[in-house]
């Protein structure tokens, strides 16, 4: 106590001595000749410490006997404590300001919505939106009465479902859960969900996409392109086809020989999207032949798990025009809030470590595209998703009611939220439930059946002096958030609990603590020290290894000893282990923060605790273990209600919710002759494309499509080669026929692009200060056409497209200045990707029309009237630093000439006052508006297009519509460009960046400070990206040839 009083007194003296001015004086201390050693110590030394350093110093202080040295170290500690306190106060103030500003912006968004929709809004709706005060006690309610419950009788439906889970190590058996922070409960959940969905009578096939990893760091199985999880429905009356069932599909993206943590995968996301798109297109065709009557069977839904997969699913669902579902698992904004409250790291440091802003933007993009968001608990909706720009509980309620009444929402949308707890397979554990009171012997391994004691039991019991005592079981990663150390302190300081029970801590797998991550190593080290401090040897078990199939046996052991399962996490998003434990007959003690509240309400099989209350944890454990009647009631209640968390129950609810989404899929309004061509003629035109069909590996299971497969003998190989060559010849001959027909019939305008083997896309954003295209662009176009003529191999089957922010009329006029005919291009992507034209099959003076299929494809969630009004108001109404509006300005004005039905174009009159793209995107989302914003033409235009439209997505549309693989496209760019420039670099296409062509672009208007990094979108180095200092035809041809070999 004396030491604490001394420290407090010293701190008061420091704070009263105007040391708070250190920050202001810090730069010029030496220069003024006013150098103070103590202040210098604070600046140079104390600013680099945190609580762990402080704890180590305190240990040294306690161990120091020399009075003078001890006093010096205590002074050191005082300075550290003062600095940490100041730092936390500063972060708390910044957090308060950020929350206040966000609340103001949310309220302003609701006011704008109310004004825009006031004409046809009922009084009750105005009240819902007009109530601007936050009501924390009001929880999210969802009306499910109108939903039609999914029935097993819907066997006529043959659904194809796509699940995506990118990070971690995913396989069907012997999952390495706990190996690292990326391979946890989410992996188990998605694998079991895929299996369970595939067994539903109406579901034909489920594909679970993940990353292919062929690295010596991990098992070889993670490098296998496909893995079957189950053969399909268990119903004997169901028609089980050759491609039915559940499969893990591993798509290569990023470096194939490295296993990367999730924070390093962001700039490879578009690679995954293109690879997954290729697989889905081939699979849809194959399923169409099996069960679709020759018509493609498109995915019923694409379901992304976690932020990275949500980002991927959003792009994929946009490319395919199919519904998207999202499950967050854990959310970036919530993690950011928790880390900021700890006060150890600034927002910049957190972003640098966790790429947290890129993760948050991915979650916001997922909310833009998702029809449905599945959560495990209501708490996740109220306290976590409510932090996001793209979801507002009150606005969602109003928009959902208006949509149900078929009332115009003025282009506004909020995704639906559904609470669906994860499922479990209880068939085996329920059968074992009656055996829990069987033979009490735990250690007898002799006799005719030594297998009665599983190996993991022996591994645990070797730690325990009396293994027959009731077991308190905790199972989690050694993560600080899991609060294991508080549990251990509660156990160590409660003598009654120590005498009554043993404590078993299953903390993942480890070989050497020194090789673990800093956070995990710190927790394990603290556990070992606490065991020693409280002398818990013989009472606490903490085995180093366990397998996934050992986990049920661990639960069984705890149940046999009449034990208890505990989850003391600070916050638990769901708590799947609580359900697993209940299924094995274990009552629970769990945190009151998060998902366990809903689980406890359903199962009523234990007690909830405050994870910060050490004494409360001990009391709850003691109560359950000592009161046998209560223990038995909790066990029986858990078994009685556990069916609520079964996989069949989960899948029924899941399919019911998905069926309520707005179903959509690619549907072409135009019926071209190429659509009816024989299937063999629509194959890719290179042998390598046939050979590299990892896309086809999962179609027929064990069948091989490789022309190099020698298992059937040389004659069969030759036959295969001959067949492929004949198909290629047919395609070449049909190309000529198609080109002839295109000159004679307007109905054949589209097939030309489809028959191309490669496509060169010129997307150079070269504009002067007025936004007019520069002559350099003409030179690039001419040299690109010349490059095709120079290299005969390159020119074979190659088409050329141009992608620009200009409208078609302006582009045509510009091309005429360089004597370039627009019909020399196979495709033209105009107005930043809002329109697509195919002039290649038209005569020079023919009138061009935008592709109606593309127009209907990007129409989704496009509300031009509401967006135009909001864009005008946001851009021309400035805000001060406090977020308050000022006098109206004229920052933008409408550019009618460049606008069309899917592109709102504005002239930027004052670039300095223009808002950044991510700032505008945030405010649009708060108002329920979903769209794609960008600045273009050297920051002289702002264009707003539909959410599903972009220059990058137009290339994927060509893939879906005309089967021109994105991997066979070559995109020519400058060193900078419009704000959508970054989207055009990453992916499986090849990118050639021409240096010195584009001097200034619009990228400075893309991100505000504190946003995600460019490196999170664009890979720093990629074999698919090449740079060129020349625009000569020969050099361009040479560079394109180099790029064509990067995948070989």
UniProtKB/TrEMBL annotation:
<protein>
    <recommendedName>
        <fullName>Sucrose-phosphate synthase</fullName>
        <ecNumber>2.4.1.14</ecNumber>
    </recommendedName>
</protein>
<dbReference type="InterPro" id="IPR044161">
    <property type="entry name" value="SPS"/>
</dbReference>
<keyword id="KW-0808">Transferase</keyword>
<comment type="subunit">
    <text>Homodimer or homotetramer.</text>
</comment>
<keyword id="KW-0328">Glycosyltransferase</keyword>
<dbReference type="GO" id="GO:0005986">
    <property type="term" value="P:sucrose biosynthetic process"/>
</dbReference>
<comment type="function">
    <text>Plays a role in photosynthetic sucrose synthesis by catalyzing the rate-limiting step of sucrose biosynthesis from UDP-glucose and fructose- 6-phosphate. Involved in the regulation of carbon partitioning in the leaves of plants. May regulate the synthesis of sucrose and therefore play a major role as a limiting factor in the export of photoassimilates out of the leaf. Plays a role for sucrose availability that is essential for plant growth and fiber elongation.</text>
</comment>
<dbReference type="Pfam" id="PF00534">
    <property type="entry name" value="Glycos_transf_1"/>
</dbReference>
<dbReference type="InterPro" id="IPR000368">
    <property type="entry name" value="Sucrose_synth_GT-B1"/>
</dbReference>
<comment type="pathway">
    <text>Glycan biosynthesis; sucrose biosynthesis; sucrose from D-fructose 6-phosphate and UDP-alpha-D-glucose: step 1/2.</text>
</comment>
<dbReference type="GO" id="GO:0046524">
    <property type="term" value="F:sucrose-phosphate synthase activity"/>
</dbReference>
<dbReference type="InterPro" id="IPR023214">
    <property type="entry name" value="HAD_sf"/>
</dbReference>
<feature type="domain" description="Sucrose phosphatase-like">
    <location>
        <begin position="794"/>
        <end position="980"/>
    </location>
</feature>
<dbReference type="Pfam" id="PF00862">
    <property type="entry name" value="GT-B_Sucrose_synth"/>
</dbReference>
<comment type="similarity">
    <text>Belongs to the glycosyltransferase 1 family.</text>
</comment>
<feature type="domain" description="Sucrose synthase first GT-B">
    <location>
        <begin position="160"/>
        <end position="427"/>
    </location>
</feature>
<feature type="compositionally biased region" description="Polar residues">
    <location>
        <begin position="740"/>
        <end position="749"/>
    </location>
</feature>
<dbReference type="Pfam" id="PF05116">
    <property type="entry name" value="S6PP"/>
</dbReference>
<feature type="domain" description="Glycosyl transferase family 1">
    <location>
        <begin position="465"/>
        <end position="636"/>
    </location>
</feature>
<feature type="region of interest" description="Disordered">
    <location>
        <begin position="730"/>
        <end position="749"/>
    </location>
</feature>
<dbReference type="InterPro" id="IPR006380">
    <property type="entry name" value="SPP-like_dom"/>
</dbReference>
<dbReference type="InterPro" id="IPR035659">
    <property type="entry name" value="SPS_C"/>
</dbReference>
<dbReference type="InterPro" id="IPR012819">
    <property type="entry name" value="SPS_pln"/>
</dbReference>
<feature type="region of interest" description="Disordered">
    <location>
        <begin position="116"/>
        <end position="138"/>
    </location>
</feature>
<dbReference type="InterPro" id="IPR001296">
    <property type="entry name" value="Glyco_trans_1"/>
</dbReference>
């Amino acid at each position: 106590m004396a030491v604490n009083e001394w420290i407090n007194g010293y701190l008061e003296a420091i704070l009263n001595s105007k040391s708070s001015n250190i920050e202001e004086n810090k730069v010029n201390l030496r220069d003024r000749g006013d150098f103070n050693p103590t202040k210098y110590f604070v600046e140079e030394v104390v600013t680099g410490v945190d609580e762990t350093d402080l704890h180590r110093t305190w240990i040294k202080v306690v161990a120091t006997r020399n009075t003078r040295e001890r006093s010096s170290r205590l002074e050191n500690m005082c300075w550290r404590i003062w600095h940490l306190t100041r730092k936390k106060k500063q972060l708390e103030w910044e957090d308060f300001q950020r929350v206040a500003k966000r609340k103001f912006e949310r309220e302003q968004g609701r006011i704008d919505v109310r004004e825009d929709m006031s004409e046809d809004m009922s009084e009750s709706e105005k009240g819902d939106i007009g109530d601007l005060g936050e009501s924390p006690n009001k929880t999210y309610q969802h009306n499910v009465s109108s939903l039609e419950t999914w029935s097993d009788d819907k066997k006529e439906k043959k659904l194809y479902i796509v699940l995506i889970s990118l990070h971690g190590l995913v396989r069907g058996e012997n999952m390495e859960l706990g190996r690292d922070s990326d391979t946890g409960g989410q992996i188990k959940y998605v694998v079991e969900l895929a299996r369970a969905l595939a067994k539903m009578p109406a579901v034909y096939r489920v594909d679970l996409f993940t990353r292919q990893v062929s690295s010596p760091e991990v098992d070889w199985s993670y490098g296998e392109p496909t893995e079957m999880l189950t053969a399909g429905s268990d119903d004997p009356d169901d028609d089980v086809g050759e491609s039915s069932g559940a499969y893990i599909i591993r798509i290569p993206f990023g470096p194939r020989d490295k296993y990367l943590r999730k924070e390093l995968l962001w700039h490879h996301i578009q690679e995954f999207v293109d690879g997954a798109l290729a697989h889905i297109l081939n699979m849809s065709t194959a399923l169409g032949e099996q069960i679709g009557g020759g018509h493609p069977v498109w995915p019923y839904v694409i379901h992304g798990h976690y932020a990275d997969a949500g980002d991927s699913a959003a792009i994929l669902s946009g490319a395919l025009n199919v519904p998207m579902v999202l499950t967050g698992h854990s959310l970036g904004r919530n993690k950011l809030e928790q880390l900021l409250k700890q006060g150890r790291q600034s927002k910049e440091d957190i972003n640098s470590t966790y790429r947290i802003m890129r993760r948050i933007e991915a979650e916001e993009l997922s909310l833009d595209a998702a029809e449905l968001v599945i959560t495990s608990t209501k708490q996740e909706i109220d306290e976590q998703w409510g932090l996001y720009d793209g979801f507002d509980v009150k606005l969602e309620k109003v928009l959902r009611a208006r949509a149900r009444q078929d009332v115009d929402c003025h282009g506004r949308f909020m995704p639906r939220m559904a609470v669906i707890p994860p499922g479990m397979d209880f068939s085996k554990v329920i059968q074992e439930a009656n055996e829990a009171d069987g033979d009490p012997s735990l250690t007898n391994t002799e006799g005719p059946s030594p297998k009665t004691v599983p190996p993991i039991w022996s591994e645990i019991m070797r730690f325990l002096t009396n293994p027959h005592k009731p077991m308190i079981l905790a199972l989690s990663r050694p993560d600080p958030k899991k609060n294991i150390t508080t549990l251990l302190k509660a156990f160590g300081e409660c003598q009654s609990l120590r005498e009554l029970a043993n404590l078993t801590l299953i903390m993942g797998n480890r070989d050497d603590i020194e090789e673990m991550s800093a956070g995990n190593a710190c927790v394990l080290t603290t556990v070992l020290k606490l065991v020693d401090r409280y002398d818990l040897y013989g009472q606490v078990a903490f085995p180093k290894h366990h397998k996934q199939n050992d986990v049920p046996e661990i639960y069984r052991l705890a149940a046999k000893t009449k034990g208890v399962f505990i989850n003391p996490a600070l916050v638990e998003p769901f708590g799947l282990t609580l359900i697993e434990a209940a299924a094995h007959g274990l009552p629970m003690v769990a945190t009151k923060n998060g998902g366990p509240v809903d689980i406890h309400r359903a199962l009523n099989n234990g007690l909830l605790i405050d994870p910060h209350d050490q004494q409360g944890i001990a009391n709850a454990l003691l109560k359950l273990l000592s009161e046998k009647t209560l223990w038995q009631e909790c066990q029986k209640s858990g078994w009685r209600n556990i069916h609520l968390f079964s996989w069949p129950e989960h899948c029924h609810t899941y399919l019911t919710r998905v069926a309520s989404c707005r179903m959509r899929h690619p549907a072409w309004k135009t019926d071209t002759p190429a659509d009816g061509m024989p299937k063999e003629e629509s194959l890719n035109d290179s042998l390598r494309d046939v050979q590299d069909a990892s896309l086809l590996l999962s179609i027929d299971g064990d069948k091989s499509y490789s022309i190099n497969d020698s298992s059937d003998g040389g004659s069969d190989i030759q036959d295969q080669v001959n067949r492929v060559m004949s198909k290629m010849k047919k395609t070449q001959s049909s190309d000529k026929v198609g080109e002839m027909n295109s000159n004679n019939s307007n109905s054949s305008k589209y097939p030309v692009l489809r028959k191309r083997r490669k496509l060169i896309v010129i997307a150079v954003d070269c504009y002067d200060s007025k936004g007019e295209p520069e002559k350099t662009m003409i030179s690039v176009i001419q040299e690109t056409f010349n490059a095709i003529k120079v290299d005969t191999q390159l020119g074979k089957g190659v088409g050329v497209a141009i992608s620009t922010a200009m409208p078609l009329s302006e582009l045509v006029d510009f091309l005429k200045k360089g004597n370039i005919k627009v019909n020399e291009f196979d495709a033209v992507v105009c107005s930043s990707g809002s329109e697509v034209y195919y002039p290649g099959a038209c005569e020079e003076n023919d009138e061009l029309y935008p592709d109606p299929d593309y127009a209907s494809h990007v129409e989704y969630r496009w509300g031009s009237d509401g967006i135009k009004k909001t864009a005008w108001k946001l851009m021309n109404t400035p805000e001060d630093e406090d977020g308050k509006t000022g006098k109206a300005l004229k920052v933008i004005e409408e550019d009618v000439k460049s606008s069309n039905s899917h592109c709102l174009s504005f002239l930027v009159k004052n670039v300095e006052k223009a808002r950044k793209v991510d700032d505008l995107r945030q405010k649009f989302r708060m108002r329920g508006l979903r769209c794609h914003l960008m600045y273009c033409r050297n920051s002289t235009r702002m264009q707003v297009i539909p959410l599903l439209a972009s220059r990058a997505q137009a290339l994927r549309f060509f893939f879906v519509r005309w089967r021109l693989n994105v991997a066979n496209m070559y995109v020519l760019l400058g060193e900078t460009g419009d704000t959508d420039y970054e989207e055009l670099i990453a992916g499986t296409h090849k990118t050639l960046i021409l240096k010195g062509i584009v001097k200034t672009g619009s990228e400075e208007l893309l991100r505000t400070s504190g946003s995600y990094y460019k490196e999170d979108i664009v890979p720093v180095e990629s074999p698919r990206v090449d740079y060129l200092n020349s625009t000569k035809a020969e050099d361009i041809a040479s560079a394109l040839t180099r790029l064509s070999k990067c995948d070989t």
